[in-house]
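[audit] Reproducing an earlier prediction to check determinism. Same input, same settings, fresh worker. If the tokens differ from the archived copy the diff job will pick it up downstream; this log only records the rerun itself.
[audit] input (417 residues):
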Amino acid sequence: MKKGLLFAAVLCSFGLLAQQYTHQVLIANEGFFDFQTNAILEPATIGSYDPISQTYTVVDTLEGQRFSSDVVIDGNVYFVAADTKIFKYDLNTHQALGSISLPGVRNLAVAGNKLVATRGEYLQTYDSYLSVFDKNTLQLLVAFDTIQGPKWATQNVVVVNNIAYIAVNNAYEWGNEKGIIGQLNLNTLSYGSEIDLGPEGKNPDNLFVFNNALYSVNNKDWSGTSVSKIDFNGSVNTQNISNATTGCGTSALREDKLIYQISLENTLNDYNLLDMSAVGPVAGISMNFYELSFNAIENLLYTSTTDFFSQGAVQIFDANNALTHQFNVGVSPGTIVFDIRSSANLLESKSNLSIFPNPSNGVFNLNGLDQSTNYTVHNAAGQEILRANASTLDLNEFNSGIYFLHYGSTCYKLVKN
């Protein structure tokens, strides 16, 4: 099972048309709960990573929670699922805005004014495995019983066209695994037909949408791993991809490929979702991960590692699979979420500096620069690549992409074609 997270960021002013950028990265650290002594030895925490300053800040400790399992951003707030509660926070200040009790809560999704919560725990029976709340007030709208809703524990959830697709896996119960995708109509708040993934599609662990279809990564009966492509008309195509399990969380969508890792291995693998075929190992990456998360805006792969009881770290890999940065976080960082924003929402710069052309093929001219003051340039991963005070900035030796120029207290976004 996986848990929650958060981060803080620097206010940047950009002298160009509005574009998307990563304001902060939220990370949920599950902590360490000793099931033998029934004690929380390392608490679950939420942290925020600022990719520009490369600083990581713990923004809250989830007191009394054995772990966290999900984080969802919605506008100016975010929600955290943590063991027995759902927490609501302000995205900018990380101030707690409220919470509600829901023992066994696992994953969350937001659609309109509704907050969908799945529920389940290994060998634990509940009278309801699916609930819907008002996202603004956290008031319960409906809790589906096991007659009108899922009969077994639920986990991942994605929303498409106001239908919430629910992964039903019976909390990975050994010998009694389930492989079902339930459908919740959010307009009528009714739980409809279920899609059976078949004998090779047991234990769906990850659920995502790609190329107008729904995909699940399944741990089967712990003897292997499969991928199911679920068309929205209900047809299912399940293919086995490994004779060993991927465990929990170590799979993610990276552009048009599924990347996944087999438990206890250091190799990361590619799987082509367009033709449902294996590609092979990902060159250049050799680590045993706990979580994988792809930032499509900046083409960066975020991963996490942990020893499960004393420490955790997050790594950032670029499009060429080079490790650009890593930083320490809490124990067992199990959820990594990107706070993507538009530069149109940022304050206009009060600096007299102008940069042109921007975008550029590599050379930028800086007007209004005080040449007694240095500026620094960082890549999209937050790594400083140069420091200068020249009025001509030449980035021809660097790859095309997004860069950030820091001058005084102001940050400018540069785009190299």
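[audit] rerun output stored. Observation attached for the diff report: Residues 20-345 form a domain with the Methylamine Dehydrogenase; Chain H fold (CATH 2.130.10.10).
[audit] end
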